[in-house]
Amino acid sequence: MRPTDRPLVSVRPRILATVVFLAVIAANVAATTVLFFAAGLSGNTLIDIGRLTGLYGGLVLTFQLILVARLPWLDRRIGMDRLTTWHRWTAIGLLWSLVAHFVFTVFGYAELDDKGVVDEFVSMITQLEGVLRAVVAFALIVLVGGVSARFVRRRMSYETWHFIHLYAYAAVVLGFGHQVMLGKSFASGGIAWTYWCLVWVAGLASVIVGRLVLPLARNLRHRLRIVAVVPESAETVSVYMTGRHLDRMPVKAGQFFLWRFLTKDRWWQANPYSLSAAPDGRTLRLTAKAAGDGSSSLRSLKVGTWVFAEGPYGAFTAMHQRKTRALLVAGGVGITPLRALLEEIAGHVILVYRVRSEQDAVLLPEIKDLARARGAAVHVLTGPSDWSGPFGPLLGPDSLGRLVPDIRERDVFVCGPPGMTSATLRSLREIGVPRQQVHAERFSLTI
């Protein structure tokens, strides 16, 4: 089936997935609240508030596990960048619910026992085993949250940040033990205990399946290895891979993998790269610019090297196309997923490629050949990042509106450096392109 013949979806996948996910959250919040009140109140308002916020904190923690599990159904419809953003939002909710649980519980028992707050806290730690576990779990969550702050994250390597985040799983185990051991709602077992165990099992199982079972199974099945390493320019290189049964790999143009090249000095590094050509069932190709130690060393990879690929990930695909025409806006090496999408996107396509000079336009000859074959238009905009044309910034609202007069009737896919992507999205808002027709994905990694 040619791209122009592919039927467009009638239901927006992202909306469907979001509604389903929020409905599951609402149902579990309701169930947790009902079971809490069914277990009976303590007679002390502070203690009851502390217990309830603790339950909500545990529930939020299980949903955080699902958000970082990279489950295919959610990832393909919502995208890893949005799931990462949701993960950050729920992390704030988790922190405040646990703080409220700690404060209200300690103050409530201090009031009940007629003790000072510090004395009560010391008594709880020394006399109740589950409380000490909870304090350690809380400290680990604060540690993980602290290293995720942007000003800290920017000063830390991904590998170090990832290793510290693994402590979050220890916090999950300790938190579950604390709630089951001391939670009044679970003291008598029954429905509440069974329900809570199922919630936590679902969260942990999601991580195990999404982060361990699926990647291992897919790599054992496909057995990827490098068949060619081709320099595209002085700074960019393409890596071609083949494997078994690639025609059965559930991958779409526009998606990316976390690639591990299994050499003695690189096997432990995972780097996100998009496919730079639509999957054809025989080979996979990535194209990367030398922007760091990982991508700089791609040029030295040898033919025959085995590859471990986690994915595919991302919702930056033609699955989300709503209109019969599309605009692709690329900046720099952000052209790679759009080059792949150019093969699969439906209808008439305009590609706008923003680079400093035409020599920096990676893959341009094959893009022009592909565009010519399918009747697409390609515009290469050159100049420094602050360069302006006769109608203002090259990706500003006036310039884009004149370059693509029917832009409001197109799906717009944007990929490039953060500054360029943000500026383009602002321009699209000013032009009045409906939000549901704008698609952009940033490679934000979670634990």
From TrEMBL:
Residue stretches making up the FAD-binding FR-type domain? 219-319
Assigned keywords, A-Z:
2Fe-2S, FAD, Flavoprotein, Iron, Iron-sulfur, Membrane, Metal-binding, Oxidoreductase, Transmembrane, Transmembrane helix
Q: What species does this protein belong to?
A: Amycolatopsis thailandensis
Coiled-coil stretches: none
Gene3D superfamilies linked: Nucleotide-binding domain of ferredoxin-NADP reductase (FNR) module, Translation factors
Q: Where are the membrane-spanning stretches? A: 55-74, 86-110, 130-152, 164-181, 193-214
What this protein is called in its record is: Oxidoreductase
Q: Which cofactor does it need?
A: FAD
Q: Where in the cell is it found?
A: Membrane
Molecular function via GO = 2 iron, 2 sulfur cluster binding; flavin adenine dinucleotide binding; metal ion binding; oxidoreductase activity
The principal localisation class reads membrane
Gene Ontology CC: membrane
Instruction: Say which domain of life the source belongs to.
Output: Bacteria
Tell me how this protein sits in the membrane. Multi-pass membrane protein
